[in-house]
Amino acid sequence: MSLEFLITALVVVLVPGTGVVYTVAVGLTRGRWQSIAAAFGCTLGILPAVLASVLGLSALLHMGALAFQGLKFAGAAYLLYLAVQTLRASGPMDLMAGQASRTSALRTAVTGWLINILNPKLTIFFLAFLPQFVSPADPQAALTMLAMGGVFMAMTFVIFVLYGCFASLIGGRVLSSERAMNWMRRSVAAAFAGFGLKLALTSR
């Protein structure tokens, strides 16, 4: 496993996406342990994309326009649903799912899992990303890509936990201001809606 792969993977993980937005929002409103559950769910949602790329299924998805379109619109619809739910939430502790203080860690993790598993761009990303760091002549290429996928997931979990825990540290200050909460609620909703629309408008 090359240093180039490790650096590239770290940069990719650090770039904020839907998973980061969700984890940070959970950390701000539900605290550290819920943000860890969100990070775990988002990380677990990467696994199908890694396995699909390794097994070659992502190549079929890439070529199959109907399958890609179906999964793409399902993911976009779910992100738009999250945006609407965020805007409908009310009260300082009610940002993401209504009654956030009573939201279980399992539900938080499942939401994070769905955010990533319904994003077909992840599969195509790994299809293009992992083979760049594997020699075609390597008889253990599949195992090498599995190992790289595992490292990528481990990086994702650690970075997301750091994002979420940092957000939870400043959450109390944010939650004490209704104006700040309204601004954050609208920002998170806009981010989810933006990601959803971008996914829906992706042609391939």
UniProtKB/TrEMBL annotation:
Keyword Plastid appears in the UniProt entry: no
Ranges that cross the membrane: 6-29, 36-60, 66-84, 105-130, 142-171
Top-level lineage group: Bacteria
Keywords in alphabetical order: Cell membrane, Membrane, Transmembrane, Transmembrane helix
Chief location bin: membrane
Gene Ontology molecular functions: homoserine transmembrane transporter activity
GO cellular component term, pick one: plasma membrane
Membrane topology type: Multi-pass membrane protein
Annotated localization: Cell membrane
Pfam families: LysE
PANTHER family xrefs: ARGININE EXPORTER PROTEIN ARGO, HOMOSERINE_HOMOSERINE LACTONE EFFLUX PROTEIN
Protein family according to the UniProt entry: Belongs to the Rht family.
Protein's recorded name: Threonine/homoserine/homoserine lactone efflux protein
Species assigned in the record: Roseibium suaedae
